[in-house]
Each structure stands twice: as structure tokens, then as C-alpha cells.
Amino acid sequence: GESVGLHLPTLSVQEGDNSIINCAYSNSASDYFIWYKQESGKGPQFIIDIRSNMDKRQGQRVTVLLNKTVKHLSLQIAATQPGDSAVYFCAERTDSGGGADGLTFGKGTHLIIQP
Amino acid sequence: DAGVTQSPTHLIKTRGQQVTLRCSPKSGHDTVSWYQQALGQGPQFIFQYYEEEERQRGNFPDRFSGHQFPNYSSELNVNALWLGDSALYLCASSFRSGGSGYTFGSGTRLTVV
Fold it and tell me: Which ranges of chain A does DSSP label H, i.e. alpha helix?
């Protein structure tokens, strides 16, 4: 099965509202987490990341929260705009000790912005 | 400063054929990873190359192979194509010592008929 998963395949929000996208992960050894945005026909675009020794990290209009106790990750987008419409993926990295760092992605949440 | 570039952008192949996809990493990056993204799914890690060697591999058969060149560019080869190999193939580059800062290309859309 997948190491990283998302709770909702689709999330619909009103323009201007805040969006919260959730992600559950299963590998407690993962040390680094990333949120990506993917628009149609494009590759994943980095949004924000967080290391396992942190609980919260803020960027411009985005905040990532990490709860290691329940292995839960969330992405909060403030004042959602039409340009935020995309599929959002969380990804985790597990350092195997050999230095290699392939990412494990979840299935994604499609964020739809309603006017 | 160019990001990650992949070629070709689209490709149609017949079942049983072989295909080669190419990736040029972002300037300053020395590590290349390949991912397969089926329609409606998240990307799946295929393998990663650093110093011209495969360093880590995901759950993909030996039909999937790769190469990294001295200039850090990379190729992904898939032999004996199946219909199920139809997907978007993504290349991501990073700087080894940094351990983060992955940059993805726009991908190659492979259709096997």
C-alpha cells in the first residue's frame, strides 16, 4: 500500500476562504515532508516543506502543520484565489542512511475554487 | 536560469517497443530522480542517479533502466512496453548535499498503444 495518503480526493472552497488540505503518512522514520501543487499539464511545483523536528512552518499565504504523534500533515492556504486551483500532493522522504532520498507521494487532493 | 527540461514532451509507442526519455537537471543540481505518474495518481519513485550510478530504486521491474552522464543529465529507458506503462514520466533534480530543493520538470507524456 501507499506510505502517504490523503483524506479527500476533491475539496471545493469559496474564493477568499481558507483551505485546509490534509495528509496522513505511515512511515514514522520519515524526516522531511513537502507539499506540491500540480496544475494540468505541468510537473509538481514546490509549495512549502517541513522537517520532522518542526511542528509548523509558514510561507506566503501557506502554512504547513506536522503532527508526528498521529502522523498527520496539513496544508493551510489563506484567502484562496482562483490561481490556487490545482491538485495538491504531500510527499515524504525517508532517509535510508545511504544518502538516497526518493520521495513517496500520496494520491492528491483536487482543490476547486468557486467564485 | 533554466529549470529541469525533459524531452520529448509527448510520445506514442506500440506495445513491445522500447523508449528513451531524457532529462537535463536544473543548473547547479547533480542528482536526478525519475517518477512515473499514472492518470489521477501521485508520482511513484522509479530510481535516482548520483555520480552516474543508480543510488536507490523504487518498486519497478528491470525493464526500467537509466543512465546519468558526466554533465548530470539523465536518460530513462523502458523496454518491452506494456499498455500499463502509459503515464506521465517526471524528472526531478536536486543538489545532493542539500537533501532538499527538488525541482520537477513538466514531464514526458508516454502513450502505449
Answer: none
